[in-house]
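Summary for the funding panel

The consortium committed to producing paired sequence-structure records for every protein in the target list. Below we show the first two records in order, beginning with the earlier of the two.
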Amino acid sequence: MAEQQDPEVPDVPEHDLSEEDMMFVSLLYNYILALEAEEREEEQQRQGEVDLPARGRRPFIRRCWTRPWLTEERRQQYGHYTSLLDTQLRLEDPSAFRNFTRLTPEVFDDILERVAPVIQKQQTNYRHPLSAGLKLAITLRYLATGDNYRSLAYGFRCGISTISELIPEVCTAIVQAYKDEVFNPPTTPEAWRNLAQQFEQRWNVPHAVGALDGKHIAIKKPANTGSLYHNYKGFFSIPMLALVDAEYKFIWIELGGKGHMSDSQIFTDSELFECLEDGSIGLPPSCPLPGETEPDIPYFILGDDAFALKSYMMKPYSRRGMTDEQRICNYRISRGRRVVENAFGILANRFRCLLGTLEQKVENVRNLVETAVVLHNLLRQSVVMAANEVDHEDEEHNFVQGAWRHGPHLEDVPQPPPTGNLATVDARRQRDHLRDYFVSSVGAVDWQQRMAGVVLPAAVEEWVRD
């Protein structure tokens, strides 16, 4: 065969291209090379090999999509939910299960059944979703302890960013599932009358339908808010104003205030205040107190000095120059008001995230608090509370502090100095009638003089003994 010869290349004159043309060709060549490199990187990105770099940065080569200790296999084998909570604690130690989640296994399962359709994601060929039970367990553990997200990530074998997204999601699902059932304020006279009967039977305060108070929920300073959330205690917070019934259940809460606001400011800006003022709240009509035929006394809420004295808001007398009858009246009102202090104490002692500084966004903090309140009411309905958990009285009606008072608790909302005479004449007359009723033969209790530290006239003592 004849040897194949290379095609003849025509000679190019040495000076056919100018210097400017040569520079243009060089730039064009470099530009084509850069375009080809970008196309290769984009193709690799579509195949999951590298991340596209930001402008001016070297490309980041992803070593793995999931860290080995966060894989589904390791999560099932070593994670707290499958290896501890849902197996050992549930089957071997229900009391430890309750300590871990603050719920009994039965209540946990009921909540899971209701929220699972909302929080469970679909399984795909790409990745296995987290189970609804795991999400609920992480949320309850955070509410119970206030552990930081990194600690929860190591314990439950989930990513930190995943936990930060699932906790608000689960909280919203719990509130939506139970709010109307366990946290629904009364709207009819009959429902309010039932609450008043509970107060009369348990705390000997007729016509009282609830007790009102406020506490601070500490938060991280929200961005661009200045001192709006800074309170008089020196930290940033969201005030929580709550109305509580005789059984330590929350009837109504308000979380829309800011740290610098007082109880009375939050109350006067609330929907509850508007309903009380215009009468649309549905309280029963005025009627005589038990054992009397007149006068007609309105139903009311028990408050403290932070609130103005109104016909629907009874509070103790000022401590200056009190008579013995006023001291007894203050004791009886304060004894009834004790339920709201205990409700806050039980709530914070059970869901201890409220005792720390919550670092979430303000809307997520309000969601967390509302979830804790809903779970608190649910447990008050389904779980028997220990006798020493709340304030109680011994056989002689001496005050005994509840267990929640021996640990950290929520801070009170500040009370502004009184400005003018805010009490109405009718409200003063109503409180004076309660004062007289509490020392009368039909309204007195036999231990009130000793607990109030007063000695009444002999005629009144005779009424009480009879």
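The next record, for a separate protein in the list, is shown here:
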Amino acid sequence: MITTGLSMAGQVAGHQAENNAIAGRNRAKLRNHQEQNRLYDREVMFDRAQYRNDMALEDIKQDDVYKAMVNQWTQEDQKLNRLFAESDQKIEKAVIEMYENEYAGTQTGRTAARLAGKSAKKLGQQKSEILHNLMMSKEEAIVSKEIQTEEARSKSRDLYEQIRFAPIHGPTPMAPELEPKKSSAGLILGLAGSAVGGFQQAGVFKPTKISNTRPPGAYGGASDIRLKENIKEIGLSPLGYKIYEFNYKGKDTRYRGAMAQDVITKLPQAISVQDGYFYVNYDMIDINMEVV
């Protein structure tokens, strides 16, 4: 009996040790999952801060692009104003030269008129050339401004594309799959087997030949799976007990009932042990033992 007790204690200790190890591994998985979530949250926070900073820088660069375009326009206007001023000076100089050349001296008649007309013609040619150059310069300034405007728009679009989309983060870390604890059913069966073996060794049970067709009594016959064959699961009772059809080994009669190894995991008090085999008290469960 001491050996049996030590064996049963060892089984309990081993079962608890396995469950403790499983619990430890599950805790480690959960801690790792928490750390992954913290890292994920930090990355999201940093990405959002970087995006806000990029947006602020983009606003500054957009302003710089606009200012650069306005400065280029101002330079074109100044260049055009300078050309107009220079042209005015050229026209004024040409008018002065015309009046200075109008004096025909001692010439009279046609010669005097021809000399005066020559000066006026020269003035007209100079004015025409100056005005033509001014018109061309003005058109060039307009074209240059359009080019500068388009370049500014292109730079503005490029800057906008850099911050057009906010950062998109992937899914949060998946929760780990935890290991289930060891079921107590196996422990109960092992302890029951050890107890039966201990009682047999102590002489409490006297092995006798077991009839597989033991007449129904308080425990309805042997329900141990070790005594049965051709077992077929056919359903589930309202209380959750599995229902089987079977025959006892070496017998042809088919029965319908429960399996002791199933009942012991749900209602151990409905099980008795006789001659090393499990019996079910059918009065305590919602299944009847009956011939098919």
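Regarding this second record: The longest strand covers residues 228-236. The chain has two domains: 2-162, 208-291.
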